[in-house]
Amino acid sequence: xxxxxxxxxxxxxxxxxxxxxxxxxxxxxxxxxxxxxxxxxxxxxxxxxxxxxxxxxxxxxxxxxxxxxxxxxxxxxxxxxxxxxxxxxxxxxxxxxxxxxxxxxxxxxxxxxxxxxxxxxxxxxxxxxxxxxxxxxxxxxxxxxxxxxxxxxxxxxxxxxxxxxxxxxxxxxxxxxxxxxxxxxxxxxxxxxxxxxxxxxxxxxxxxxxxxxxxxxxxxxxxxxxxxxxxxxxxxxxxxxxxxxxxxxxxxxxxxxxxxxxxxxxxxxxxxxxxxxxxxxxxxxxxxxxxxxxxxxxxxxxxxxxxxxxxxxxxxxxxxxxxxxxxxxxxxxxxxxxxxxxxxxxxxxxxxxxxxxxxxxxxxxxxxxxxxxxxxxxxxxxxxxxxxxxxxxxxxxxxxxxxxxxxxxxxxxxxxxxxxxxxxxxxxxxxx
Length: 432
Description:
Blueprint: H1 8-14, H2 16-36, H3 42-51, H4 56-66, H5 69-78, H6 94-130, E1 135-140, E2 143-149, H7 150-175, E3 177-178, H8 192-202, E4 205-206, H9 217-244, E5 251-252, H10 272-293, H11 304-332, E6 335-336, H12 338-345, H13 354-363, H14 368-385, H15 389-395, H16 397-400, H17 405-411, H18 421-427
Parallel strand pairs: 3-4
Antiparallel strand pairs: 1-2, 5-6
């Protein structure tokens, strides 16, 4: 993780102290389960709970000799104990501890991300209501199409984040699981009941079947959902970046007192927040690819996935937390230039009503082909001359042979495009 893009709450989860503490939490939970099973005496459990600890420097020293981090850890813990040390790691293999502890840390990270998603959801809902009736030009292929509203932009993202929350909740349920099933997952030296007790004590689920490791499709699904969340943030950021362009200027990011936009040009106000989260979203999607490749392991386990996950899990969770938080801040400080929105709506001199003209002619009995082929040349004249579309229609004898002046003028009504907006909001669960 790069400090610049990781908030302290997430950094704490993934630091080395938390790593080994989570390992110790698993080890002690296993001892408790063996005690419940009648294997470990009460006195030994009490001593382990009271005295078991680790030392980071000592772990490093031992690992330099053993070249095995879990052995270095268990030996450091054993050095803090007496004869009861024999119960540390009893019946376990390394990944029983590592994978289960990793799921504990993912659960802690998920609590943060879940809160981030709910916060952003609230912001999007508020903005969708605030700008529900602010008519703006809709664009397809980047070209003016027909009127929409600014509120509908935010409503679409609100609907999308609801789907991402649903996906995230499903993926986190699957990833917040442990495995205490031994060297190849057969429970040869431990029991399924021990696994269930341990996971229950730790507040996570237990995987129905594992090898030496948890199945990596769980992690792939999880990283895929994080990539979807990141992609939505980039989608929002891209819209803001376009609408902040000088030629458009319908929205812009907040610009704080004392903020600078360029080292060379004092006039610049750049969408740096949106650009920032766009770039980081690409990183999250890239790390998703690594998760897919981590599924392809030899037999009951190799460690080719392990080194990669030391990078992609802290990075992806930290980055998603960061970009969700930053996008929420961007949206809460967003400036919507309503005058520019109105100006851009009128930029194409009424061309955004061309479909209504065509449909009106069809309603009067024309074929679709005849209506389209009549309206299109008139629309092209607007592009070429800058004259208003309505004026050209009022001057066209063929159009006027079927539509009178009042009917033509009535077509150019922005409110026509808002008649079903309430229904769309209701479909999304918002009465506004």
